[in-house]
């Protein structure tokens, strides 16, 4: 839900900028959103319309809250809400980015009746007139109009909505404090195009909360800098127009960048947005820290003064930026792009799908999913990213493991009705969990392998959809169930019985890592030739699968079935069996514990599986 709030504040200024100076014209600060002002002669044009025209042409429900705010009362407790007006929705499309906004104002029109002037009872009855005392002239009140907008692409998040509500009070307080502070100031570098606010009937300011993509486009279009930033200020004040309204302009704040900076600087998101709002307003009032060192010092000083006077936490933006640059403990390589746990709701996903391996990737060395990794997966799901398991495991094994961290079922990553790639791509399930591909090993290859297993007493497991079959019990066979969560192996009386029991998709030999590398892999690579293919996901296991099949080919088939392109996916793996998957994906991430061949083809090498590598990849690269 997007929100638009307009606040009107009245207070009595303290003869702001009494020193008259030559007329100077403040050029738009960072890069204004230039708009043609509607003709004030039209009856359909209202101050509201003038205000809306500045952010971009928005789709809005106009709403106004009028607040009595008299000079000297800076505490929110002294703000009295006078009236609220809600009109019907009027929709307009943005001509800039096609964004849509709307405004909310609750309730029907409410009015507070002000007491009428007292009428003398004597005058009513015709008694003689008495000499009246001179009425003290009331000081002129200045109306502050503040528009608060939330950009449509930001999530419907309670914290963002709460911050927008607080800005209804904070922004007018900041404006009042800044005007009073500048009254007696003698800054040398400030542009004085705005010098006498007492000459205006009202002052207007808009504040837009947006995401990184929105502010990046603004930054590119108006400043020719193609990157996101924290805050942009766009002046709308044109002195030569001699308008009765001082249109300060727009302050655009990226909530995504603000959230990251809040974490780095050790305060709340609200604190950071207040700091950015102070910085943005000072730009609109003529400060510019980029023109000289003296100008930077003056703006930094005024930032500190305002934050201190309002009792808001944190340092000014200029000082905070210097502190970040000078912090020798800040690891730029590892911290630039990593989002805070729990903050993904502020960020836009870069990918529609994340394909993730299990053993050695999603699972740590204890074959467990840590709580940190589970939390990252849940956050990704909550932001609309679909996580698809691509593993050598059976589907029941994957379900059992993810069930332990509450990620199995219809609202989790995996269920009997979700897509997935299993048994190294030999079983692929599509929409509603329906099987869309199956490939079996040749019976002759299976027979030779089990004869070898019986003769050399090397444990061998046959995988048949959701079943595991073997010829004899062995501790390594048991570990496949107790450690790796595969279905408990059924012991068959003979090779003939085993082959007749089910169609076999793949075989796994279990031995020591040395035994696999020195004996099993060389032997079976030669023995199978073109009839099968040998792969390794774990050092102490050797898998025999049908030729021409792989996890990568299974993923291609699933993507075609779902109508998804490779550009929409990020893939995370570690083993040689993940190579094709990582090469296929738009972004392939190999964990640092992975095979060297896998890391050679990856776009990025991430943290290890014992360092929550999947969680780190999600927080760093997926949003």
From TrEMBL:
Cofactor(s) listed in the protein's UniProt record: Zn(2+)
GO molecular function: endonuclease activity; metal ion binding; metalloendopeptidase activity
One Pfam family in the UniProt entry: Hydrolase_3
GO biological process, one term: rRNA processing
Keywords: Endonuclease, Hydrolase, Metal-binding, Nuclease, Zinc
Family: Belongs to the endoribonuclease YbeY family.
Protein name: Haloacid dehalogenase-like hydrolase family protein
Organism, scientific name: Dipteronia dyeriana
């Amino acid at each position: 839900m997007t929100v638009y709030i307009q606040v009107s504040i009245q207070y009595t200024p303290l003869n702001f900028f009494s020193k008259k100076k030559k007329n100077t014209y403040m050029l738009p600060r960072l890069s204004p959103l230039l708009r043609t002002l509607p003709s004030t002669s039209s009856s359909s044009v209202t101050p509201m319309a003038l205000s809306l025209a500045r952010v971009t042409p928005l789709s809005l429900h106009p709403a106004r809250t009028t607040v009595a705010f008299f000079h000297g009362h800076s505490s929110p407790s002294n703000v009295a809400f006078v009236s609220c007006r809600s009109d019907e929705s009027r929709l307009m499309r943005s001509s800039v980015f096609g964004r849509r906004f709307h405004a909310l104002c609750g309730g029907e029109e409410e009015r507070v009746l002000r007491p009428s002037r007292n009428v003398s009872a004597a005058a009513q009855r015709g008694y003689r007139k008495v000499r009246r005392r001179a009425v003290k002239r009331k000081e002129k009140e200045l109306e502050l109009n503040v528009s608060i907008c939330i950009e449509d692409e930001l999530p419907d998040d309670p914290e963002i909505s709460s911050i927008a509500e607080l800005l209804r009070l904070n922004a007018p307080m900041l404006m009042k404090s800044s005007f009073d502070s500048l009254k007696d100031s003698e800054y040398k570098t400030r542009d004085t195009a705005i010098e006498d606010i007492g000459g205006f009937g009202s002052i207007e300011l808009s504040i837009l909360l947006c995401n990184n993509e929105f502010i990046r486009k603004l930054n590119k279009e108006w400043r020719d800098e193609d990157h996101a930033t924290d805050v942009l200020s766009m002046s709308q004040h044109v002195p030569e127009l001699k308008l009765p309204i001082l249109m300060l302009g727009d302050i655009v704040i990226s909530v995504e960048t603000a959230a990251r900076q809040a974490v780095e600087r050790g305060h709340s998101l609200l604190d950071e947005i207040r700091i950015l709002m102070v910085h943005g307003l000072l730009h609109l009032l003529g400060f510019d820290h980029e023109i000289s060192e003296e100008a930077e010092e003056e703006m930094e000083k005024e930032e500190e003064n305002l934050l201190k006077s309002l009792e808001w936490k944190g340092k000014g933006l200029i000082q905070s930026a210097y502190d970040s640059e000078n912090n020798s403990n800040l690891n730029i390589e590892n911290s630039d792009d990593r989002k805070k746990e729990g903050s993904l709701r502020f960020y836009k996903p870069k990918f529609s799908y994340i394909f993730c391996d299990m053993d050695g990737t999603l699972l740590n060395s204890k074959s467990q999913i840590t709580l940190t990794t589970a939390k990252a997966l849940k956050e990704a799901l909550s932001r609309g990213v679909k996580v698809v398991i691509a593993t050598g495991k059976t589907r029941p094994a994957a379900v059992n493991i993810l069930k332990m961290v509450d990620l199995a079922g219809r609202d989790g990553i995996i269920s009997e009705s979700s897509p997935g790639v299993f048994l190294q791509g030999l079983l692929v399930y599509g929409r509603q969990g329906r099987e869309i591909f199956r490939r079996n090993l040749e019976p002759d290859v299976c027979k030779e392998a089990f004869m070898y297993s019986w003769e050399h007493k090397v444990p061998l497991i046959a995988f048949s959809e959701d079943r595991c079959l073997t010829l004899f019990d062995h501790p390594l066979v048991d570990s496949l169930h107790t450690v790796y969560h595969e279905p408990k192996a059924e012991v068959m009386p003979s090779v003939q019985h085993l082959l007749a029991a089910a169609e076999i998709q793949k075989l796994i030999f279990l031995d020591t890592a040395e035994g696999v590398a020195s004996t099993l892999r060389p032997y079976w690579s030669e023995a199978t030739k073109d009839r099968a293919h040998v792969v390794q996901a774990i050092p102490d296991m050797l898998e025999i699968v049908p030729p021409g099949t792989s996890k990568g080919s299974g993923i291609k088939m699933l993507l075609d079935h779902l109508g998804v392109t490779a550009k929409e996916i990020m893939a995370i793996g570690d083993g040689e069996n993940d190579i094709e998957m990582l090469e296929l994906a738009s972004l392939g991430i190999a964990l640092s514990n992975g095979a060297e061949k896998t890391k050679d083809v990856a776009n990025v090498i991430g943290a290890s599986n014992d360092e929550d590598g999947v969680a780190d990849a999600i927080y760093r690269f997926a949003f």
